[in-house]
Amino acid sequence: MEKKRVSNFKPNAKYIAGAKWGDEGKGKIASRESEDAKLVIRATGGANAGHTIIYKDNKLALHLVPGGIVNPEAICLIGQGVAFDPIIFLQEIEDLNKINVPNVRERIKISGRAPVVFPYHKDLDGLYESIKDNPIGTTKRGIGPCYADHDNRVGMRVYDLLLPEDELAKKIDVATRVHNQLFKLYNMENCIVDPKKLAKEFHEYGQKIKEMVVNADILTSKARKNGDKIAVEGAQAYRLDKNYGDYENVTSSNCVTAGALIGGHLNHKDVKEVVMITKAYDSRVGNGPFPTELPAHIKNDVVLPYDKPFEGDIIREEGHEYGATTKRPRRVGWCDAVILRSAKDAEGADYICINHLDTLGKIGNILGNIKICVGYKYQGKEIDYYPDDMNLTHEVPTPIYKTLKGGWDISSDLRDYNKLPDLAKEFIKIVEDVAEIPVKYIGVGPKNEDLIVREEL
Ligand code: IMP
Predict the structure, then answer these.
(1) 66 in Cβ contact with 277 (< 8 Å)
(2) Whose CA is nearest to atom 5 of ligand 1?
(3) How far is the CA of 21 from the centre of ligand 1 (A)?
(4) Ligand 1: which atom is nearest the Cα of residue 285?
(5) How far is CA 89 from CA 47, 144, 215, 226, 262, in A?
(6) How far apart (Å, rounded) are the C-alpha atoms in residues 319 and 313?
(7) How far is the CA of 406 from the centre of ligand 1 (A)?
(8) 213 in contact with ligand 1, CB cutoff 6 A
(9) How far apart are CA 351 and CA 336, in angstroms?
(10) Beta strands in 39-155 (DSSP E)
């Protein structure tokens, strides 16, 4: 007789995933999902991410604290997968207090197991970028070197900041012996670490955060048992994932759903739904392949003066595409629906959210047409998947586009999907057909509430 599976798991976690190269507007859905969540989790990446929160008309850019902090009932966890930068974190706490977000210190929990970012990680980040012929264009927040130390088992975790100062100094000494040799070799003497001095500084941070440091397994276990709603705010995205993405132009974490589960102290049975976020056009900061990229007047992350804009300049300016963390102008291009199909499989996504549908309409009005990538030409063949051997072929796939004539106007207070202009609905239908996943959410304006939700799906 087949044995009945017995478990007390009540899956109630929603993961908000990025579908492309980040900056898809994950905050919009994250904030919606956090409204009734008991636990909100940041699980991957670190202060390389950025999202803006609005609390009682006050705007604040956060990099580490989950956006769900604006829900006064929510416990917000910085999970074990997050590269935790105490300097940036403490600044965010101060900023949140300034705008009177209630009980911030009581509601934020930090996993004791999260790897800590030290200033030498930022120096190493800069060093590795400087020795590459083709730098990645990292955010220089020390993310890669912090995770690398963690993998090498010489990294410090949040728990280590609570050690007596001399014990912490010993650990920092071991961690930085090789790094200090590198700094010497590359004439970066000013970056050489004095373990005692650094231990003193970071021990003080430890004292400032100690009441927030927890064994986060207990938090998620309790939520799991109660069936509490958990919102997991994704950082970065599918094509920046260190395994799935365009290696080496990736970040150093697994930012797809599976990675976020580990980083968030969750397991696969916790997942109730994965919503994957994209824009109606695409953008990328940093280097690496971008098949649908359009020409723009950008060089070395700076917008050059121009008389006549290229298509990319028009999209960038209409979409205000400048990095939240680094302020760099973003590279932009048409929406790539082929990536969405691959992303859906990697993320285990249930639905897509398309942001900036209103902006795409305006772009179409200006340019006279809109394009969607529905396939590629690559290595002399037509393909319908994102290739993973571009390092080998030195070829970026050429998009095969479907073109829609014209654009549209959408008012940001539109909430009824059926009232969208026909051309906008046609665009969505093409995305759904190519990506093989329904579009449930549609962003029609800059505010979190400027969202059409297709409840029928
Ligand atoms: P790192 O994560 O700072 O090491 O940067 C690696 C790559 O990921 C660079 O191309 C960054 O621009 C990109 N990146 C990292 N975080 C984000 C993000 O939150 N949004 C968009 N791009 C990101």
Answers:
(1) no
(2) 138
(3) 8
(4) 12
(5) 9, 18, 19, 29, 21
(6) 10
(7) 33
(8) no
(9) 16
(10) 39-42, 51-55, 58-62, 75-78, 108-111
String of DSSP letters for 179-207: HHHHHHHTT-GGG---HHHHHHHHHHHHH
Would you tell me which CATH number, out of the four given (3.30.413.10, 3.40.50.1260, 3.90.170.10, 3.40.50.10860), belongs to the domain 280-453?
Answer: 3.90.170.10
Judged by phi (left if over 0) then psi (alpha if -120 to 50, else beta), residue 406 lies in left
Task: Give residue 333's identity as a one-letter amino acid code.
Answer: G
pTM: 0.95
Instruction: Pick the residue whose CA is nearest to atom 8 on ligand 1.
Output: 251
Q: What is the CATH number of domain 119-208?
A: 1.10.300.10
User: Parallel, antiparallel, or unpaired for β 298-299 and 302-303?
Assistant: antiparallel
**Is 51 one of the catalytic residues?**
yes
Percent of the chain whose predicted confidence (pLDDT) is above 70: 98
pLDDT at 391: 93
Residue type, 421: P
CA of 139 to the centre of ligand 1 (A): 6
Task: Read off the DSSP letter of residue 381.
Answer: E
251 Cβ inside 6 Å of ligand 1: yes
- Check whether 1 has a pLDDT greater than 90: no
Average pLDDT over residues 391-408: 97
240 lines ligand 1 (CB under 6 A): yes
- Tokens representing 326 are 């680094």
278 lines ligand 1 (CB under 6 A): no
pLDDT of residue 323: 85
- In the chain, what are the domain boundaries? 13-111+213-269, 119-208, 280-453
Mutate to test the pocket of ligand 1, among 16, 20, 236 (most ligand atoms within 8 A of CB): 236
Give the pair of three-digit tokens for residue 385: 């998947």
Q: Ligand 1: does its nearest atom lie under 6 Å from the Cβ of 156? A: no
Query: Does the C-beta of 283 come closer than 6 Å to ligand 1?
Result: no
The model's pLDDT over 327-350, given as tens digits with 9 standing for 90+, comes to 899 999 999 999 999 999 999 999
**Quick one: CATH architecture of 13-111+213-269?**
3-Layer(aba) Sandwich (3.40)
* 205: Cα separation from own chain's centroid: 26
Question: pLDDT grade, residue 372 (50/70/90)?
Answer: very high
Model confidence pLDDT, tens digit, residues 146-160: 999 999 999 999 999
388 given a catalytic annotation: no
